[in-house]
Specification:
globular; alpha/beta; binds NADP nicotinamide-adenine-dinucleotide phosphate
Length: 268
Amino acid sequence: MSSNDKYTTETITDVRPWTDSLFSFRTTRDRGYRFVPGQFARLGVRGRDCAGEDPQHRDHDSVVWRAYSIASAAHDEHLEFFSVVVPGGAFTSRLAKLKEGDEILVERKSYGFLTTDRFEAGKDLWMLATGTGLAPFLSILHDFATWERYDSLILVQSVRTQPELAYEDLIRGFDRSEYYAEFAHKLRYARIVTREPVPGTLRDRVTKLLASGVLEENIGVRLDHDRSRIMLCGNPEMVEDSRKLLTGRGFRISRRGDPGHLAVENYW
Ligand code: NAP
């Protein structure tokens, strides 16, 4: 590991493809790197083929930087990230070529407010994700304090096709985990697959399911101002539409010094 004031140089230790365009990867973690579950890191990838890239995202060393939510637990020795390959995208097409042993830069600072400390009180934590927006919720689900604090943890994962239901085994496996099994009865997990029929999953978009009340019915928990604390992450249109729906029902965005019911993060 080498470092400068702004970032450390880490090593890719594992790459896991989920589909042709979805993969996750692990990196070494600097001992001094701190983050709160739900936050994102800024990752840098070096490259020589920078011609034509967006200069806003480039620094003078030809490093392309992007924000990535951290999927791993705050107590893990490694960092894990979950990514889509954006067709023609400067960063992800370069990232997708990286393999075990390659280097990746990690900014020393962590960012973002999709964290449970934005909330006060509340009994049910709702986590609504589309696509790779699942990542921060994986980190939150590995935080023991979250399991202790809430009566229910409700995870909604929306993807286009069944193979994109990444991490499903891990999510379903909390009840078999040595550390989480005692809490696992608190987890409710709803899968939405929008572009093909898959038994046991919902088919409509999360926004439609929210508006119709079908999501609450399916999960068996009602959205309630006193009990519900809601986090949204993923497709920016989903985040915006869900935010409007929920604020229309009287749920308020949490702001610094003014805790509400909602915390949101656009994923791109
Ligand atoms: P996605 O289009 O975000 O779809 C994932 C899930 O979200 C699907 O179930 C989809 O339903 C649903 N969804 C999409 N828009 C919605 C909305 N307005 N309201 C409610 N639900 C909505 O798919 P993805 O595979 O995660 O990403 C798609 C593309 O986004 C990628 O190919 C990439 O180009 C871009 N992307 C870019 C970045 C980046 O960092 N630049 C990151 C992630 C994704 P439907 O099937 O009904 O659409």
